[in-house]
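[INFO] parsing input record for Helix-turn-helix transcriptional regulator
[DEBUG] input buffer:
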Amino acid sequence: MTAPAASNEPPAPVTEPIGPLLTTLRLARGLSQLRVAEQLCAAAGVATVSRHEVSRWERGERVPGTFWLGWLAAVLEAPVEELEQAVALTRAGEQRSAHPAEWTPELLWHPPTATELRRALDRDGAQDLRTMAHAWLAGPPEQPRETLTLVPSPTTTHLLDARTQRLAELRRMDDLVGGVDLAPLVHQEVHESISVLTTVGNGQPRRRALSLLGEYAQLAGWVFADAGDPGAARRAYRVALRAAAAAADRLLAGYVLAGLSHLTLEDGDPQEALLLARTAQTGLGADATALTRALLLHRVALAAARSGDRRGAHSALRAADRAARSGTSEPEPTWLYWLDQAELTAMTGRALMALGRPLRALDQLTAAGGRRGPRGAALYECWMARGYLQVGEYEQAGRLARRAFRNAVTAGSHRAAALLRRLHPMLLRHRDLPTVRAYERVTEGYHGLLPSAGPASSGEEANPVG
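[DEBUG] output buffer:
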């Protein structure tokens, strides 16, 4: 293998430093840091690069020199000009030390203060969630020192137990109440969890409090997205990832990235969603429990399907099925309470729908059965109706869409309303059929009852239903 020569074509603009760019290129080719190091040594004929050196490049601790940039371009199949631009951006960032950025990758591994977390939750910032994800994947710059494990006081234990119970209550509410109505309450509860950090001290109690905060913020990200406020959702996911990293809770961090991938996909960026899902999957690796692995693979499958990567989507679906059926006895995290075999089957159906295989998708969705709560029912009925439209069963699609409309109005869910709005014009092309006309009569004049997108992080800003 020879190092690539510079191209005569002008290089495409590069907007990220060399570390995140190397991580992106490596993950896109399914390579580990060790494999990249091995290929670099084999290509260059110089056995001086180890996995640790690749890790330092990706974390931004070191910048590869001109010699290695050429071989990195060859191994990662990228224009050398792109890598040179990324190095220039990295150097420029180092020279701006007099004007530090609001957030750097190293900050992910520093214990966050309550003030930092409140600011991250309530204010838009320059933080790049992809960069945070790469920082998490690369790992801390060095192994953190063992913190003295303090025995929590009875008061602290009681407080954290109460916060755990409250979180379980909010999750049950989320099954039945849409994001439009639930978002202000969840926003308040995340702030309460941040306040708890100031009272629990250090050691094991603080790690537990940080993990709890991460779970609250993860739930908030999901709820804000359901309320049609992706900006607030991203801020919540940012707090969740900070808390999970500080608590050394890798499973929770991977779950947060899975939620962020789903949000990004809903926002219409399947390539970014796929990158985030693969980052979570790669970062957890063998540490993932069976259901966590199945969930992450389903996120990969759906994003790959939307990206046009049919082979990758089918491969991820097969791997997800194997993971779910592995039959391990390891305990699953409590935040996966909602993921059962029926839900996994429904997720398979949705991915198959995205792959343009409606018959197989309908088989899976039918086997999954109805979903719990009005939002789950509305989403399920929209997927089914879309499948029936694709196979020409327009009357059945009309019956399901009418039920979906009623459930979407009840749910107070922007997610369900958005799916129904996309289905609506496709269905009305067949208004010559009685069932479609019946759907049109039910919905005519009442689409204003469906939730629309808008800020939902405070009671004054939340969009009402109606």
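[INFO] The chain is about 65% helix and 0% strand.
[INFO] shutting down worker
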